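Renewal narrative, Specific Aim 1. Our central claim is that a sequence can be written position by position from structural information alone. The example that follows is taken directly from our test logs and has not been curated for this report. It begins with the structure tokens describing the chain, in the order in which they were read.
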């Protein structure tokens, strides 16, 4: 059974919103992970410079 008309657009809009939310969450998770790794690397490099 095919979904058509307004119902089809509503289903499509809901799917697009869900995909956008998932993409935003993944973006922030990856961004936080990269920033944490960069800070840890900076601490490691600065620790080696003081030795």
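The sequence written for that structure reads:
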């Amino acid at each position: 059974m095919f979904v058509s008309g307004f119902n089809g657009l509503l289903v499509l809009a809901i799917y697009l919103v869900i995909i956008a939310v998932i993409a935003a969450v993944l973006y922030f998770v990856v961004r936080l992970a990269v920033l944490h790794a960069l800070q840890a690397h900076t601490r490691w490099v600065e620790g080696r410079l003081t030795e």
